[in-house]
TrEMBL record:
Chain segments annotated as transmembrane: none
Lineage top rank: taxon: Bacteria
Domain Tn3 transposase DDE: start-end pairs: 551-692
Protein's UniProt name: Tn3 family transposase TnBth1
InterPro entries according to UniProt: DUF4158 (IPR025296), Tn3-like_transpos (IPR047653), Tn3_Tnp_DDE_dom (IPR002513)
Residue ranges annotated for the DUF4158 domain, each copy included: 3-133
Organism: Deinococcus caeni
Annotated keywords: DNA recombination, DNA-binding, Transposition
Family label: Belongs to the transposase 7 family.
């Protein structure tokens, strides 16, 4: 810069150099920047420039010479050069082919890549058009490759899904997309028929593993979300590709629904049997009391005879029968024996009484679902294979089936050398299958939810390569014995510390309950609120602004940009204006359960009924809500006051329970909270950073009680 004549030329050269380094391009007006930036660069060069001469720099040809000199000295290239365009286009093509990213993400990546490779940034419209063109080509290539997989017969079967059958108001695709609603044996049979209907289309066996997973997920989301009319308007290749991916993934979703329904059905069956047993025992309590009273008379007579001179048994028996007749003693003994049977025996009898109910869905389940398993699930798989072979056979010997799972009370009902007790054997296998599915000892590979959990684990070679790095990042010793020794020492130290402080700790005591020693914590009384706290609460309440919920939601979006996390179903960028207002309106209507009518304003385009309905259908999904929630959490962590409260590692967890007015297999019975209706429980927690979060999945009573 010292070679440039004039202070204004040296400063102008420096400003253009700083601009291209920071922005990645030159400004049309080299001085179109904050005054503070100009003064800072001038101070670095120790220059005091005449403003008039500096103004002349922006209008003379010298600035162009400086621009060319900077490009030559530091290796900056124009975007119009073929190598620069080709390099960026190849990069974008790879991203667009492998991942379903929105155009805004690709624009950010393109800008960063051009700056890194010292390519002068073109106009925004130039990049957006290039990105749109490349994405369109990648989409067409994906659709074309997918559409080439099925045969003509399979294509015909796929396109027939868009037709509406006679005496029906919805297409076959809509019928397949409809999940089961009733937790019952007919509902499970219908769910299994849905799996068979998907398989009969004949495309679930096509291998789609060579295609990017994210792109397939996007097509599946579109196929499950758009209606049949919109799918008919697609181009042929896109329509076939969307239908192919939708049907291929629909098999796994249908299996998930069927197995979830099967699991819920068995859980409800076992719980119902236990409740019936408890009710029967309560109903028979008066008979048990009467039997116990009569038996007690015999006991008292025996105790009284112990202190008297020895006498013969007939005299003692006559004395007892004078108090209680022989018929009454016999009836009391039979009543006590019947009412005090082990629960395991009565449970088995209850299960056997439901055998006909199980037979309504068991054949369809064994015929439709292909169960697999680990080594621990081997006995269950062998028993299931035996059940398949037993179909349509009236007489079966016990030696023809594996009896590894027949243990405990089941062995009394299923002797090893007698003819097979078919109902008892079937229910025994189902009882073990229910537990094996929960432990994933038995799994279904085609089901995403009930698949083999080992598939997500690292292989031996991969784990060996990453073991040191993973342990280092978690601050763990690679040797498990060392870690177990450290944890054992810490646990022993804590136990000894607690034991040593017990005599001085008035809030803790030991008590005996049911033969066990338990730790009892004394409840502390609530402290009275000091006047300073009440005064502080009043001051805070005065400073809190009074505003409507829509204003609050839009203000939070202005801080965090959470509404931008809601993307279109197809990951395409929308061109509508004020989309954030529409998203916030739909969120408010859903959160307050008031419907769209309460937020519709026909005079405002962003709040029109058509716009809000379109946003509700194409933007609100589980993944977009999770992404928006993540933005809120990330922004909250940047607030100094929040970080002073805690690091977010401690939380108070509870459940929010809601009645579900519609039928769904994901809602369960809970008489304590829902009465005779069904409901769901959403697990939520408040962290020590005062952050409130909701779990996205409902849990049934059987789950959260465990």
């Amino acid at each position: 810069m010292a070679q440039k004549k004039g202070k204004h030329n040296r400063l102008g050269y420096a400003l253009q150099l700083a601009t291209v380094r920071f922005l990645g391009t030159f400004l049309t007006d080299p001085l179109d920047m904050p005054e503070a930036a100009i003064q800072y660069v001038a101070q670095q060069l120790d220059l005091t420039v005449n403003p008039v001469k500096l103004y002349r720099y922006r209008t003379r040809e010298t600035r162009w010479d400086h621009r060319h000199d900077i490009q030559a000295r530091w290796g900056y290239r124009d975007f119009s050069e073929i190598p620069a365009i080709f390099d960026l286009a190849r990069f974008l093509s790879a991203r667009a082919r492998l991942m379903a990213e929105p155009p805004s993400r690709l624009l950010d990546l393109s800008t960063a890549r051009l700056v890194e490779h010292r390519v002068l940034l073109p106009g925004v419209t130039t990049l957006t058009r290039l990105i749109a063109r490349i994405q369109h080509r990648a989409d067409e290539r994906l659709w074309r490759d997918l559409a080439a997989l099925p045969s003509e017969a399979q294509v015909t079967a796929l396109e027939a899904l868009l037709d509406v059958p006679p005496r029906s108001s919805v297409s076959r695709l809509d019928q397949l997309r409809k999940a089961p609603l009733s937790v019952s044996a007919p509902g499970l049979v219908g769910a299994l028929k849905r799996v068979e209907a998907v398989r009969r289309i004949g495309v679930t066996t096509l291998d789609l593993s060579g295609f990017p997973e994210q792109r397939l997920n996007t097509l599946f989301r579109i196929g499950m979300g758009v209606n049949a009319q919109a799918m008919r308007r697609m181009t042929r290749s896109r329509r076939i590709a969307t239908l192919l991916v939708t049907v291929s993934r629909l098999e796994g979703q249908a299996l998930d629904d069927a197995l979830t329904l099967f699991e819920s059905l068995l859980t409800d069956l076992f719980n119902r049997i236990e409740r019936q047993e408890d009710g029967a025992r309560q109903d028979q309590l008066p008979s048990l009391e009467e039997a116990a009273r009569r038996s007690n008379q015999l006991t008292l007579a025996f105790l009284e005879s112990l202190g008297q001179p020895p006498q013969n048994f007939p005299a003692f028996a006559a004395r007892v029968l004078a108090l209680v007749s022989q018929e009454q003693l016999q009836a009391a003994a039979e009543t006590v024996q019947a009412l005090t049977r082990p629960r395991s025996e009565t449970r088995l009898e209850g299960l056997l009484s439901r055998y006909s109910y199980v037979q309504q869905f068991l054949p369809a389940l064994l015929r439709t679902v292909n169960f697999e398993g680990s080594a621990a699930g081997g006995p269950s798989l062998a028993a299931l294979q035996a059940l398949r072979r037993l179909e349509r056979r009236s007489q079966v010997k016990a030696t023809e089936v594996p009896l590894t799972l027949v243990k405990g009370d089941w062995s009394k009902l299923i002797p090893g050398k007698a003819p097979l007790n078919r109902p008892a054997y079937t229910l025994c296998i189902l009882d073990h299958l229910h537990l094996a599915l929960k432990r994933r000892d038995v799994f279904v590979s085609a089901s995403p939810k009930f698949s083999d959990p080992r598939l997500r684990l690292l292989s031996d070679q991969a784990w060996t390569a990453l073991k040191a790095e993973v342990c280092r990042s978690l601050d763990l010793d690679p040797d498990p014995q060392v870690m177990l020794a450290q944890l054992s020492a810490q646990l022993d130290e804590r136990y000894r510390l607690v034991e040593a402080r017990l005599p001085q700790n008035a809030a803790v005591s030991l008590a005996e309950e049911e033969g066990r020693t338990v730790l009892v914590l004394q409840e502390e009384e609530a402290l009275p609120e000091p006047p300073s706290l009440r005064h502080l609460r009043e001051l805070v309440a005065r400073r809190m602004p009074h505003l409507d919920l829509p204003d609050l939601l839009l203000e939070v979006h202005r801080w965090t940009g959470f509404a931008n996390a809601f993307t279109h179903l197809s990951e395409a960028r929308t061109r509508v204006g004020h989309l954030d207002v529409s998203v916030c309106a739909v969120l408010l209507a859903e959160a307050c359960n008031v419907g769209l009518d309460a937020v519709v304003q026909p005079e405002t385009e962003a709040l029109g009924r058509g716009r809000l309905s379109w946003v509700d259908q194409h933007y609100l999904r589980a993944e977009t809500i999770a992404s928006a929630n993540a933005r809120l959490v990330e922004f909250q962590a940047t607030i100094p006051t929040v970080t002073a409260w805690g690091d977010g590692q401690v939380a108070s967890v509870d459940g929010l329970r809601f009645r579900v007015p519609v039928k769904t297999i994901y809602a369960g019975q809970n008489p304590k909270y829902f009465g005779v209706r069904s409901g769901v429980t959403y697990v939520n927690f408040i962290s020590d950073q005062s952050g409130f979060y909701l779990d996205s999945g409902p849990t049934k009573r059987a789950d959260w009680e465990l």
